[in-house]
Write a structure and sequence with these properties.
With 327 residues, the chain is an alpha/beta fold. 39% of the residues lie in helices and 24% in strands. An eleven-stranded mixed beta sheet has the order 1-10-9-11-8-7-6-5-2-3-4, with helices on both faces. It is globular and about 55 Å long.
Length: 327
């Protein structure tokens, strides 16, 4: 096994900036996540909304409007695809030479996401940019046409993106508490997509002391295909034991999956930073659970003072199906 393990310690501060990361929120779901991301003031990240409803584009420096009247897509992904095709020059301009990575955030099935996201992903691929999509898939009760549009959109994204994280609303409904209102449910889904979307910006940080190269992340995610995302937050005096127990529960039954790529982000505060023992134990557990055949395994350690004594793991695993095999 030719496994590459890269560890990097970064500290988030006001003086640090990410290099060339652009997050494009497409459609209602994508713009909703983008507005939440805007409140985080992530350094060096450009947020670009893309919508057929022009009222959703307010408050951002650069936008990508689709269509001419700004009244929505009418749930017509084919019409949106045509609008996005006419905007190819504008998309190429947005993804200029300063861009190192593109993260697409959207909900598939409703029209704008399914129609526009593959067009943007294709252009990003043509410009040789690291391209990652974080999407939600519709409820099975939303109707045949919606589900079909979502599945077609997802297939196109997998072809054009390096990595695609897809969250099934049906599965999230089973995970979240039953007493959530509809508004609370979609807010919780948005938060999960947000955490997936900010993973690369959290890792790719430049400071006076440390220069984390975007190529490290690119090496792990390049052509890794469908990906699995999970986040574990531990608030316990015995946080290592609790963490290892949660990892076992999360990845139980995944040992047979041919996972070739693992991206691991460990966050802690300076009040209680992650220790060498904790880092080594977490990496060993992940290796045994899912990474014994991993070709690339990147670990990034980031300081986040808001965590206080908590420990946060964010894990992205891919390489289940190589792009050539998928085609």
């Amino acid at each position: 096994m030719n496994q590459t393990v890269v560890a990097q310690q970064n500290t988030v501060s006001k003086n640090q900036t990410t290099r060339g990361v652009k997050i494009i929120g497409i459609g209602g779901a994508g713009c909703s996540v983008l507005k939440k991301l805007a409140t985080l003031n992530l350094p060096g990240v450009e947020l670009i909304p893309c919508h057929t409803d022009f009222s959703m584009l307010k408050g951002f420096d650069r936008t990508l409007p689709l269509g001419t009247i700004g009244a929505g897509s009418g749930l017509n992904d084919q019409q949106v695809r045509q609008w996005a095709s006419t905007q190819k020059p504008a998309i190429r301009e947005l993804l200029d030479s300063s861009t190192g990575a593109v993260i697409l955030v959207t909900g598939l099935g409703g029209g704008t996401g399914s129609g526009a996201a593959p067009i943007i992903a294709e252009i990003a691929r043509q410009q040789d940019l690291l391209t990652v999509a974080c999407v939600t898939m519709p409820f099975s009760s939303e109707g045949y046409e919606t589900i079909q549009a979502a599945e077609v959109g997802l297939k196109h994204l997998v072809l054009y993106c390096d990595s695609v994280v897809a969250f099934s609303l049906d599965n999230l409904e089973k995970t979240f508490a039953d007493d959530l209102s509809i508004t609370e449910f979609y807010a919780a889904a948005d938060d999960l997509v947000l955490q997936a979307a900010r993973m690369i910006p959290d890792i790719v940080i430049t400071s006076e002391e440390i220069n984390t190269d975007l190529n490290d992340v690119r090496a792990v995610l390049s052509k890794s295909g469908p990906a699995f995302f999970t986040q574990v937050v531990i608030d316990s005096p015995t946080r290592l034991d609790t963490c290892l127990s949660q990892l076992n529960q999360t990845f139980e039954g995944s040992r047979s999956q041919p996972i070739r790529r693992i991206l691991l982000l460990i966050k802690s505060s300076s009040k209680k930073p992650v220790t060498m023992l904790e880092t080594r134990s977490i990496v060993q557990a992940l290796t045994q659970l899912i990474g014994r055949k991993a070709e690339l395994f990147k670990i990034a350690l980031v300081t986040d003072e808001s965590l206080e004594e908590r420990l946060q793991l964010t894990i992205l695993t891919g390489g289940f199906i190589e792009l050539d095999e998928l085609k």
